[in-house]
Design goal:
With about 450 residues, the protein is α/β, with parallel strands linked by helices. The chain folds into 2 domains: about 120 residues, N-utilizing Substance Protein B Homolog, Chain A (Orthogonal Bundle); about 260 residues, Rossmann fold (3-Layer(aba) Sandwich), CATH 3.40.50.150. About 45% of the residues lie in helices and about 15% in strands. The strands form 2 sheets. Strands 5, 6, 7, 8, 9, 10, 11 and 12 form an 8-stranded mixed sheet that branches. Helix 15 links the parallel strand 6 and strand 7. Helix 1 crosses helix 5 and helix 5 runs antiparallel to helix 6. The chain is globular and about 70 Å long. The termini are far apart. Belongs to the class I-like SAM-binding methyltransferase superfamily. RsmB/NOP family. May act as RNA methyltransferase. This is rRNA cytosine-C5-methyltransferase. One of its GO terms (biological process) is regulation of DNA-templated transcription. One of its GO terms (molecular function) is RNA binding.
Length: about 450
Amino acid sequence: MPKVPVPKVDGARLVAFDVIRAVAEKDAYANLELSRLLREHRLDGRDAALATELVGGTLRLQGSYDDVLDRLAKGKLDPPVRDALRLGAHQLLSMRVPTHAAVATTVDLVKDRIGHRPAGLVNAVLRRVSERSLDDWLTNRSLAARTSHPQWILDALAEALARPEELDALLAADNERPGVVLVARPGLCDPAELGGAPHPVSPYAVQLEGGDPGAIPAVREGRAGVQDAGSQLVALLLARAEVDGRDERWLDVCAGPGGKAALLAAIAAERGARVLANERQPHRATLVAQGARAARAGLAGVIAGDGTRPAWAESSFDRVLVDAPCSGLGALRRRPESRWRRTEADVTELVPLQVSLLDSAVGALRPGGVVAYATCSPVVAETAGVVQEVLARRPDAELVPATSYLEGIADAESAHLPGAVQLWPHRHGTDAMFVALLRRT
């Protein structure tokens, strides 16, 4: 019988390359594509960890690697070849992979996935890359190249931070692989059940040292979930805010994929309240329902609808959450491809939608009720700018100091909207979440 050829390239590197190509060609989300391919190739343990590091690290530092590669490669690089070189550069410059192993495996990857023709070029370029450290390659290069952030994002983050002395720390935090944080949904799970260490931003947050969260029974059963501590705080601030009178009907206007809705539903169930979860996209609405299955006692239902054209009556809710679609520039460490996918034009297009969603949410409140407006972006136009515009157009709304509901969290006030909360990865170990509270008067 003829022998079956054994692939020279290990599964982790094949998966990493395929994920990065899917991000470039299909606008895929790296985390979702990675999870799918890890399951498909049945990779776990060290192989899954290697693939995860290759994908996340290569995408985070893509701008720095391109700065090096463009000085070494003559002529224009085809996109698949460039992606293979980025993977090789990451192993040489940011991982402890020996030069011969990094070069040889990348050349074999190119032969397997692209063809033999560019193999010589890849071999030659990577051997040149290996001659210097990343710091040496980036000496005297631009801040954008050294920190692997597009210039427009550097400018937007610097404006939002409003502390020039902290910019380097923020950019460095964006390039660090975030730890896995779990949420123990109240009434369903005790944080001690999850292991790990408490996170100071949320009483329900636990940070894991490592391992597969899906192997934890509480996560599999929906009593706990993977959720950044900053996202947990968004739900907590809405739940902590004082409302006048009745407190039974809550609304999550943009609920997909469902993490905040599940936490809100668990909190609501303990208080005898219920949450109506709305999500515009039907497939994401399905994810919301699945994610909140363990907290269904606090869930009034899940509907698929447009939050700017509400299916609910005016003045009918006591608490409303608007976790608005945004540029996502506060989660660059967790979604590294966003920095290469987003443009300034995206922010310009998103702001009118954000204003419309918040305006509609205020209208959904009864007098005395409270709305939380949140984004996983610190960009001024998407945060303070949106809230200020809605306050200017709605005399029946007033800003409530969200900072008064922080418990043990220091230095978290927005530099552009006093009373609003702005978290930062380098200060608080979270995504750069923004939260403002408004009351309908």
